[in-house]
Design brief:
By secondary structure, this protein is an alpha/beta fold.
């Protein structure tokens, strides 16, 4: 019979070409793969798990672009002897002990399951959905290999970052293409671009704010949109991340119908001695408290899933800075995670990028 997807003549039930010799490798029915990608997670919060994870993360030239001869001795001899302890302690505070995994892993699994269900309802078994991590497990290599072995002749690679940045979207794509280099028979591929201004993404953010505010007794004086930071030097070198973040804040404010100044755009997770994008969230919330804005809410639009940077840094360090400066009510609005509006937005982005591949 003729397989409509691949154009090959396949013997029914046997998975081999009708004209091929008996010892020819089986030919699987062609599928389309949708591979979601997130930043990553350590396997556990013990010293060696943390050290392996941090070594992979902080050795990425897209993340830390200093010359190796200068950076690696500092990383290996100083940072990786101390930081795994402090980072491990922070992970332990937020760890999903029931499933023995990080919240990012739990949430990414839930997102993947819902997206797989949504695509199955539209396209049946012809589309395979899975996820990988840029750092740690499951690795990008292993998931690309699994998709190829499953018969995926086309793969849509989707870094779950609404805003483009070299240290997030680009490095995820880099790793994906490195995995592709190992394949004898490479499938056709597409990568999903940033979706920071997609109407359904903005709608999902707005709904999360409205739902959070509806449950508050005291309305926040200001909403702080805290985005992951990056060195200012990256912006000056052409990385569009800062502009993408600013536009998301504006579009969110407009969708909510709020006046200018109702949302502050800030940046968190500063690392190293050089200047990063400002204002820094941890300093800005303290300044708000000193200015008399005693009730604030914080949202993290750049994160598709709650993780160490949101659950521990925002809801821990940044909350403490606000309260220590005299703040009274600090409301953290969770990431979009696997809520229905977010999944609807992600499915729309996927469908748009599958155009021409599916009916």
């Amino acid at each position: 019979m003729l397989d409509a997807k691949s154009g090959n003549i396949v013997v029914p039930g046997e998975g081999r070409l009708a004209h091929a010799p008996a010892d020819h490798p089986p030919v699987r029915k062609a599928k389309i793969g949708v591979l979601l990608a997130n930043l990553g997670t350590p396997d556990n919060y013990d010293y060696w798990s943390m050290r392996r994870y941090l070594n992979e993360f902080l050795s990425d030239k897209r993340v830390i672009d200093y010359a190796s001869w200068k950076w690696q001795p500092l990383l290996q001899l100083i940072i990786l002897t101390k930081r795994p302890f402090s980072s491990g302690a922070n992970y332990k505070l937020i760890w999903n002990h029931d499933l023995n995994e990080s919240p990012l892993m739990t949430i990414t699994k839930a997102q993947t399951a819902k997206i797989a269900q949504g695509l199955a309802e539209r396209h049946g078994a012809d589309v395979m959905v899975d996820f990988c991590m840029r750092y740690g497990n499951p690795s990008t290599d292993s998931k690309v290999r699994a998709m190829v072995e499953a018969g995926c002749e086309k793969i849509l690679f989707f870094p779950l970052y609404p805003h483009y940045a070299g240290a997030t979207s680009a490095t995820a794509n880099d790793q994906f293409f490195r995995a592709m280099m190992k394949e004898k028979r490479q499938p056709a591929v597409r990568t999903v671009p940033e979706y920071f201004e997609h109407p359904l993404y903005i709608e999902a953010l707005a709904q999360s704010v409205e739902q959070a505010y509806a449950g508050l007794e005291v309305k926040p004086d200001v909403l702080v949109a805290s985005y992951h930071g990056m060195p200012k030097r990256y912006l000056m070198s052409g990385d569009p991340y800062h502009c993408h973040c600013a536009k998301t804040s504006r579009l969110l404010r407009e969708r909510l119908g709020w006046e200018k100044g109702a949302i502050d755009t800030t940046f968190q997770s500063v690392f190293g001695p050089e200047e990063w994008l400002k204002p820094y969230t941890v300093e800005h919330v303290a300044e708000l408290a000193k200015q008399g804005k005693k009730n604030i809410a914080v949202i993290a639009p750049a994160f598709s899933a709650d993780c160490i940077e949101t659950l521990e840094e925002i809801n821990g360090e940044i909350r403490e800075a606000f309260e220590h400066a005299g703040g009274e009510t600090f409301t953290y609005i969770p990431c979009l995670n696997d809520n229905d509006a977010h999944i609807t937005a992600l499915l729309a982005v996927i469908e748009e990028n599958l155009a021409g591949w599916v009916g």
